[in-house]
Give the backbone structure.
Amino acid sequence: MLEALLLLPLIGSGLVFAFRNSNSKYLAVGIAFVQMFLTFYMLSQFNSTPTVDSSLQFEINQPWSTFIKSTIHFGVDGMSMLLLLLTNILVPLIILSSFNENKGYSNNFYALILLMQFGLVGVFTALDGLLFYAFWEITLIPIWFIAGLWGDNEKRIKTTTKFFVYTFVGSLFMFIGLIYVYNNAASFELTDLYNASLNGTQQFFVFWLIFLAFAVKLPIFPLHNWQADTYTYSPTQGTMLLSGIMLKMAIYGVLRYLLPIAPEALLGTSGQVVMILSIIGVVYGALIAIVNTDIKRIIAYSSLSHVGLMVAGIFASAIITAKGGFSIEGAQGALVQTFAHGINIVGLFYCADILIKRFKTRDIREMGGYAKVAPKFATLFMIILLGSMAVPLTNGFIGEFILLKSIFDYDKVVAVFAGLTVILCAVYLLRLYGKAMFGAGDDKVLATLKDISAVEFTVLATLAVFVIMLGVYPSCIIEMVNSSLKFIYSSIKG
C-alpha cells in the first residue's frame, strides 16, 4: 500500500508530462483522486499504536548504501498518516480548482503538481535522515517552476528568486546539521539519529542548524520576508500548495527530526528564543493583516500569525517536558491545527482568487456587494472564515484552545500575547469579508457577475464539509497522533 502511495504520483507525473494534450488536467485529477481514495483505504485499515522504534503496519525497509549507512526506509505512524491525509485530500482539490482558469495550464503544470505530491509523501514517510533531506529538496523543484513559470509576469522572477535563495540556504544548513548528527550516530536511521552521542554544546549547534531550515519554511519571524510576495504573486494553485501543505513539512520536521535529536538545547536559551520569535510572529502577522488592503497579503500574514501559534505550542510543551514534566498538549493542538489550517488556508486563497477574478483587483476597498449576487459563495466563504477564526464547532477551535492552554501552562504572560491571535484574527477576517461581500459595490460591475460555477462550488463545499466535520469530531485526529507524540516527547524527557 505504501509503495503505491509513493509511486503513483511519480508515475502519474511522468504520464502527464508525456501526455501533451489539453485534456491532461483530467488525467492529473484522476490520478490525484485515486491517490486520495488509496489513502482513505489505508486509513480504514490503519492502527496508530505502533511508533517508529517498532515494526510499523505500513513500512518499506530495504538496504541502499552500507558505505554511508543509509537505507530506503519509509513508514507510517499516526503523525505520518495525518499529513498523508492532508496532502492527498488537498492535491486533487487544488488541481480541480484550476479547471476554470483562463490561463489554460499546460500538461507540464499538472505534472509538476503530481511531482510535488510525490515529494510530500516522501517527506512525511521517510524514516532515514538522508532520505528525508532528499525528498525535502525534491519538493522545492516543482514549486519553484510553478511559481516561476505561471506566476505574476512582472514579479515572478524577483519573488521566485527570493523564495529559492531563502529555502535552499535553509535546507543546506539542515543538511550540515544532519551530517553532524550522523557522524556521532550509528547510521542515518531515524532512531539512530535520536540516540546520537551529542553533548549539550553539540546539541545547541545542531538545534540551530536544523531549526533554521524549518524556520524559513514555516516561516518564523524574522525569516518571513519571502512569504507575502511569494504567496501574492504565485499562481493560486502554487500558493495553495505552499500554504496548505508545504509549510506543514516544517511542523512535521520540528517534531520528527529536531526535538528528539537535540532535547538538551531546550533547557538553555534556544527554546526561549524560539518561543519569543513565535509570539512576535503571532502578533506581528496579525497587525500587518489588519492594516493591509491586498486580499492575498492579508491571508498570507494571517498564515504567519497562525503558524507562530503552532510553533509556540509545540515548544511550550517541549520545554515543560525537558525540564522534568511531561506534556504533549502543545503538539496535539499543533497537529490538529496543522490539519485545520491546511483546509482553511486553501479555502481562503481560493475564495480570494474567485473575488480577484470577479472584481479584477486584489484591493478589498475596490470590492463590495458580491453577497447580493452570490449567496452560495457567501455561505461557503463564511464557513471557511469561521474555521479560520476558531469559532466553536469549527475545525480551528479545538486546536487553538489546546495550543493556548499549553502556552498558559508554560507562561501566563506569554499566553496573553498568544491569545491576541484569536481577537485580531476576527478583526482582519471580518473586515475582509465585510468589505468584499457587503461593501458598497459598483452596481454596473455586480450586474455582470454570477455566483460560483460547479467546479468552484465543489471545491469550496468539500472544504466546508471538513471545516464542520472536524469541528464536531476533532478527537479522531488527537487519537491518531497520540502514540507518535508520546514517543517523541518521551525521547525529549530522556
About this structure: The beta strands are 58-65, 70-76. The longest strand covers residues 58-65. Residues 276-494 form one domain.
